[in-house]
Amino acid sequence: MTPDRCQQYLEDPEAHPTHPAECASCRAMAEELSSVEAEGVVIPSLPLAPWEGAGHRSWPLVAGVLLAVAAMAGAFFAIGGASPRVELARAFRSGVDSTNAWAGFLSTAGSALQHAPPGLQLVIGLAFLLVNALLFVMLRRAPRGIDV
């Protein structure tokens, strides 16, 4: 058979179903492939990828960096003459104060939205539904990968 017809068959076997009957090499290849499909390929286990634990683990590096940062923080406290306990308590108190401020802001914003005009509440509700519908449609779409 001509190499052009064999190439056409290899590119699209379903479009040229009678070609293996005419060409001995393509028929042998089709029979070999059908026997592999009938038997199936059994892979006992795949090798582990580096991110699955087969590669180098960097936990000693993480622990070393953590210890170095703690040592540097202790040195800075010692140089500054401040107590870490007092400074941490002050930081916690300021964090609690800012948390209370945010809670008050959110409470005020919530009550302001409750007393907003009905038209604005309707627009906000429709915008919420529209954004969620758009996200739902985007998540339902088939992903486009490299093979597309």
Structure write-up:
This protein has 148 residues and is an all-alpha fold. Among the domains are: 3-35, no CATH class; 83-138. It has 6 helices and no strands. The chain has helices spanning 3-11, 19-22, 24-39, 59-80, 84-114, 118-140.
Summarize the structure.
With 148 residues, the protein is an all-alpha fold. It has helices spanning 3-11, 19-22, 24-39, 59-80, 84-114, 118-140. Among the domains are: 3-35, no CATH class; 83-138.
Mean pLDDT: 82
Task: Give the amount of beta strand, in percent.
Answer: under 5%
Large-scale geometry: flat
* Radius of gyration from CA coordinates: 34 Å
Described by strand count, sense and barrel closure, the largest sheet is: none
What is the H/E string?
HHHHHH
Number of strands: 0
Helicity level, as a percent range? over 70%
Termini Cα gap: 33 Å
Given the structure, what is the number of helices? Answer: 6
> Structural class, from secondary structure content?
mainly alpha
Unreliable stretches (pLDDT < 50, length at least 5) are none
